[in-house]
Design goal:
8-stranded mixed beta sheet; 53% helix; two-stranded antiparallel ribbon; 12 strands; alpha/beta
Length: 630
């Protein structure tokens, strides 16, 4: 789709005719009226001075749409707040792209859009940007009519941006109004190079009120900070004057910036500098064809020939006159100035309809990734819980050491020793009842070791699964490492032992509270509740299934069945109730252990900085509000 020019074409209408290169300057050619550069004087002095002819009467003004500005400003402020408050999880996919887009939109809202909504008399900012060695500083000095910025053979020359404006406007470009986060220094007359990243304000009477020229760092500088500064200032400008050379115009970096101007419908003029006389027409045709192919066919174009007619770091010939005349028209006529500024402003507002949803998609991508990582944790530890629950009841624990210890106790009569006739409960019988046999103690240790091994194995497997799957995501490995390095990890064994000991004590208390319910037994028998709790645990671990299941889990019959012994003491209904209660109690304890084990992963994910669930929705809503308010 073709777009109207930001200003009338320099000459003609064809692609090749759009260039207005001025006279073919050579080292021995001069033009009448340009032998000497006029001395600096007030803007109304005779003779052409910079881009300021003609100068409008009264203060220069241009602004954004004025209808219902108060509401429009509130909508923009709300959008800026939502974008400013966004946080991305660093290192995860989408973070870098989202952060760059966030900074880009936020800077343009703060530095360009909102100031122009709030005030109608903001100076028109013309940013001169382009390639290394394109002669931007020389062009800026020539446009102003006096040297305000330095040039040189060192590349990049412009290590900090230089802004030339009328002394009446210099206050507006102070920290409180124009890109407040950027340090700056005011300097009258010639702006000497400052430190990297410092804006130099060069007040000059040659500049008319209400217009500023900005000499930006090179967009293709080897110093990354330089083209970042260039991008920042271009985002805050009303008009781009983009300068490239006959040897650099095809560089990718040049077209990245020009395509941004195209996508935002920014008011744009393009200057092809250092154009040699030989092959001039072919160069202009090829450059024009590239502009057409990239959707910039209607951009105002100029060509500056190769020349050595430079003195005081500005052209002494009239090679920059077409550019000066163009900017004089833009700066001098209120209607033209408003046309330029409004086009850029509306283009930026229109671009938010794509850029803000694009930012919302980055947010959605991180939210979805967070859900996926959380699902990995959920599934891994749910699987651990299932494996533990299965191992607790299928008899698989009743083998090896635990089964051997049970056989020893069952075959040795230790169980019988715990059951004493009431008639024999003398002092000696009580002492014997208080003593714990070595075999019973060994059985107790074997039970705890088996339960510990089951829970630790399942938990470690879940942790390994989470780490393995998280590492398949870019940045997930660092997140997993962060989780495993948190204080308190590696305490599972100690916590399991404590939980099992407490569980066993609760079972013993439960058997004591229930008592032996069968009257025929209750009248004659008392028993050691700790030992009976062990017997109940053996039954809960699936002893009967291990006896009937065969294969690896089968156990040889040795001694009494724990279930038969327990039924004799408590009766079937009471035994079923105690078994269900003990089983549920153990499950709750294990679930608590697994929750603590997964907590480092949950904490690492929660602290990663993933955007909130409603952040994307709010961005879409803000885009809608902007569209219906503008």
């Amino acid at each position: 789709m073709t777009r109207p020019s930001a200003a009338p074409n320099a000459t003609g209408s064809g692609a090749s005719d759009r260039f207005d290169p001025g006279p073919a300057a050579t080292s021995d050619q001069t033009t009448e009226g340009h032998h000497d550069v006029p001395e600096a004087g007030p803007p109304h002095a005779a003779g052409r001075r910079g881009p300021t002819v003609p100068i409008p009467a009264g203060p220069a003004k241009h602004r954004a749409p004025s209808a219902d500005d108060g509401r429009f400003e509130k909508v923009l402020e709300s959008l800026r707040t939502q974008i400013r408050d966004l946080r991305f999880a660093e290192g995860l996919p989408g973070a870098e792209e989202g952060a760059e887009l966030q900074a880009d939109v936020l800077a343009q809202l703060s530095d360009y859009v909102l100031p122009r909504v709030r005030r109608p008399d903001i100076p028109l900012l013309i940013a001169v940007a382009g390639s290394t060695g394109a002669g931007k500083s020389t062009l800026v000095n020539s446009l102003v009519g006096e040297q305000v910025t330095t040039t040189g053979v060192r590349r990049p020359t412009t290590n900090s941006p230089v802004l030339a404006c009328n002394p009446a406007d210099v206050d507006w470009f102070s920290e409180s109004h124009f890109i407040p986060t950027l340090p700056r220094v005011r300097q009258q007359g010639l702006a000497m190079p400052g430190k990297d990243g410092m804006l130099v304000l060069a007040a000059s009477e040659a500049m008319p009120p209400g217009v500023a020229l900005l000499d930006t760092p090179d967009v293709d500088s080897a110093v990354a900070a330089h083209h970042e500064f260039a991008s920042k200032f271009l985002d805050a400008a009303d008009l781009w004057v983009f300068v490239t050379t006959s040897t650099r115009y095809a560089d990718a970096r040049v077209w990245e910036f020009l395509q941004v101007a195209r996508d935002r419908d920014t008011s744009l003029a393009v200057v092809l500098s250092r154009v040699p006389r030989k092959g001039r027409r072919q160069l202009l045709d090829h450059f024009g064809a590239m502009l057409e192919a990239n959707g910039l066919g209607n951009a105002t174009r100029f060509a500056v020939p190769e020349t050595d007619q430079i003195s005081a770091e500005r052209f002494t010939s009239n090679v920059a006159d077409p550019v000066r005349d163009y900017l004089a028209d833009v700066a001098g006529e209120a209607e033209q100035r408003d046309r330029v500024s409004r086009r850029t402003f509306i283009g930026v507002i229109d671009s938010f309809a794509q850029r803000v949803p694009e930012l919302a998609r980055c947010v959605e991508g991180q939210i979805e990734l967070s859900r996926q990582l959380e699902t990995v944790v959920d599934e891994a530890y749910a699987g651990a819980a299932r494996r533990i629950d299965s191992g607790l009841g299928d008899g698989s624990l009743l083998r090896g050491t635990l089964l051997a210890r049970w056989h020893e106790v069952a075959a040795s009569g230790e169980l019988a020793k715990t059951l004493k006739m009431r008639s024999k409960r003398g002092r000696k019988a009580k002492a014997q009842q208080a003593e714990r046999g070595q075999r019973v103690a060994s059985l107790e240790r074997a039970v705890r070791d088996a339960l510990e091994a089951l829970v630790v194995s399942a938990s470690e497997r879940a942790s390994d699964e989470v780490g393995e799957q998280w590492r398949t995501v870019s940045g997930g490995g660092d997140l997993a490492a962060k989780a495993l390095e948190q204080p308190g990890t590696g305490m599972l064994t100690q916590q399991i032992r404590q939980e099992i000991a407490e569980w066993q004590r609760e079972i013993a208390e439960m058997t004591a509270a229930s008592g032996a319910t069968k009257r025929s037994v209750a009248r004659f028998v008392t028993f050691d509740h700790d030992v009976v709790a062990l017997v109940l645990i053996i039954d809960l671990l699936g002893y009967e299934r291990s006896q009937s299941g065969g294969g690896a889990h089968a156990a040889e019959t040795s001694g009494p069945s724990p279930q038969r012994l327990l039924k004799g003491l408590f009766g079937a209904p009471s035994l079923r109730s105690m078994g269900a209660t003990a089983r549920d109690n153990l499950r709750e304890r294990i679930e608590g252990l697994l929750r603590r084990e997964r907590l480092p992963f949950d904490t690492a994910l929660a602290s990663a900085g993933v955007p909130s669930e409603d952040a994307a929705v709010q961005l879409y809503q803000a885009t809608y509000n902007l569209e219906i308010t503008r």
